[in-house]
Amino acid sequence: MAAEQGAPIAAAVDGKRGSLRALDWAADEARLRGRRLRIVHAFDWPLYHSTPHGLAGFDIEEYGRRVTRDAEERARERTPEVEVESVHVTGDVAPVLLEESRRAELIAIGSRSLGTVSAVLVGSTALELLAFASCPVAVVPDREPRAPVGRVTVGVDGSAPARAAAAWAFGAAAERGAELRAVTVPRRVTRARFGAPEEPAEGAGEDPAVEEAHRMLSESIAGERELHPGVLVEEAVEAGHAAEVLCARAEDADLLVVGTRGRGGFTGLLLGSVSQAVLSHSPCPVVAVRAGDGR
Predict the structure, then answer these.
(1) CA–CA separation, 230 and 164 (whole Å)
(2) Domains of the chain listed by start with CATH number
């Protein structure tokens, strides 16, 4: 679903550190794109039955207002030139955010650090958004932000979602004045159903799988190159585990962009556990784009 003209950048907040990192990222993105920032706080109705009503002065409605008020103040201090609005809603978090995604250009959510392990926890709400959101979803890791390096990395595998991701990534690189790095991982074929991956014969020249990956990568982004002639592009074909390759290539990037088919996670390069690994281990924010959301 295409966002309306002038649609806001949305940020989901719950008062915790991870969501505040997502809020900061969303505020910066709104400033970059010249968009409004819409702050959303949702809480489940069952919380009324488990909150400490016996504590003097506790009121869950006032708590929601305080979360959004504090978030507004934080965003305005960080990006005073950005128009900020906020809302707190009683309801299941995922459905509330999915409804917000119908009117947003992008929605940002936070993740939770796993402490000493170099990973973050991507919760069920994030996974539901990644599967069903109507706009691209940015998952911002709960890590100290790094200084911008001027590079956007995108995973490409020839699929429609990956092409949408490439379109979005080219636009993001153009807005940032950044270089774009397009990455793909060659697909190996087997000699039999349960055979070992084929390897090129000695002296046979370049691996056919690598040749095919180079061709697919170049063809997949050719149209976006024409639309964004000012974007410097690096094409990278690298063997290995897709998630490891993408996360490694995001080490010196400001943003990692991937495609998702929706209703079940990532496709092609990112399938099943790979998608979880990318979201959990990426050193920078990850933007997931569905087919049709590239522009």
Answers:
(1) 19
(2) 1-145 (3.40.50.620), 146-295 (3.40.50.620)
Spatial distance between the Cα atoms of 110 and 190, rounded to a whole number of angstroms: 40
CA pair distance 94, 66, nearest whole angstrom: 21
Report the distance separating Cα 128 and Cα 99, nearest Å: 12
**Cβ neighbours, 10 Å, residue 83:** 13
Q: What would the two tokens of residue 197 be?
A: 């991956």
Say how far apart CA 213 and CA 238 lie, in whole Å: 9
- Phi, psi (degrees; rounded to nearest 5) at 89: -125, 135
Residue carrying the six token digits 């979360």: 67
Question: Would you tell me how many other CB atoms lie within 10 Å of the CB of residue 201?
Answer: 7
Cα separation of 223 and 167, whole Å?
Answer: 9
Rounded Cα distance, 40 and 133, in Å: 15
pLDDT for 142 equals 86
Q: Which helix (H) or strand (E) holds 218?
A: helix 208-227
For residue range 143-202, list pLDDT tens digits in order.
888 899 999 999 998 888 889 999 999 999 999 999 999 999 987 644 444 444 455 545
Residue at 26: amino acid letter: A
Q: What is the pTM of this model?
A: 0.84
Helix (H) / strand (E) element for 151: namely strand 151-155
17-26 residue pLDDT tens: 989 999 999 9
